[in-house]
Amino acid sequence: MEIIRHLHFLRPAWLLVLPVMWGWALWLARRHGRDGNWGSLIDPELLAGLRLSADGGKPGRSPWPWLTLAWSLAVLALAGPAWQRDTTAAWRAPAAWVLLLDLSPSMAATDLAPDRASRARFAIDDLLAAARDARVALVAFGAEAFTVTPLTEDVATVRAMLPPLTPDIMPSPGDNLAPALEQAANLLKQTGQTTGQVVVLSDGFADPAAAFAAAQRLHRQGVTLNVVGIGSTAGAPLVNLQGGFALDAQGRPRLARMDTDRLRQLATSGGGRYVDLAALPGLIGDLRAASQRSRGVQDVAGVEVTHWRDAGVWLLPGLLLLAALLGRRGWL
Prior knowledge:
The protein is elongated and about 115 Å long. The chain contains eleven helices and twelve strands. By secondary structure, it is an alpha/beta fold. It folds into two domains: 2-88 and 306-326, no CATH class; 95-301, Rossmann fold (3-Layer(aba) Sandwich).
C-alpha cells in the first residue's frame, strides 16, 4: 500500500506513447497475421516447408503479444516509475576569485623593481598559491578588457599565462577599469556563481565614475571587490612607446604616481578592502578565511537534498529476457 500511495512517474510524458504503440501493434498483428504476411507472396504448401519452428514444422507462436509487452516495459522504464526517496548531502560550488590585472602604460613604471607590471604578476602568483580550493579567473585590462583564463580550478594553467602579460602586448593604450569589472561579473554569471571575490591589481584608472558604479553593482550582487595598489605615491617617469620618457606640456618627464585615494574609494564601493603590496599577505588570509566560511556552511547547517529514486532500471531484466525469448528460432 505504501508503494501504491507514492507511485508516480518522473517523466510521465512517455506514457502518451503507450496507446499509440498498442494500436500500432494491433494493426500489425491483424495485417500480417501469423505467417508474417508471406502468404501473399509464397504458396501455402511451400510456406509450410520454409517456416522455421522448434516443433517439427508447426506454426510458431504469435510474436505480437510478446512484442507489445516488451515495448510496454521499455516505455514504462523510460517514464521513470518512482516511489522511494533518496537523501544526499547538499553540494556547494567552490569559491570563485576573479583577478583583474592592470596593463596600462603606467604599469611599466620602475618605481618598484623591476617594474609595476612584474610586481603585480608576482602578487598574482602569491594569490594563486593560496587558491587551493577556489576557482580562479584572470582578466587583463587597459583601454579594453580581455579574459586571459575563465574560472578554472587549474591554477597551473593560470600561472603559465602570467609571464607574457606586459603593458606592451595591449592593442591600444588606456586605463579603463569599468569594462574589466563588467567582464568579471559576466565570468561569475556564466558559471552560476552568486558570490565571489574580485581582486584588482592596479596603480589607478581613468574612468572613476563608471568604475565606482560597476563596483557598487558587483557588491549588490554579493561579490566583494578588493584592491591591491601597485606602485608608489612618489611615482616614476613614464616611458613612451619609443623607449624614452614621456614629457608633459612643459617638456618635463611625466611621473606615473599611484592614485591611492581613488583605489581606496574603489575598494569601499565594492565592499572590500584596499592593501598595498606589503599588506598583501593579510588580504590573502582574508580570502582564504572567506573560502573556508563558504565551504563550512554545508557542514554546520547539515543541508541535505531529497530526490525520488528512478526505479525504471528494475524493468530492464524483464525487457532483456523478453528480447532473448523473441530472438529464439521458432518464435517469429
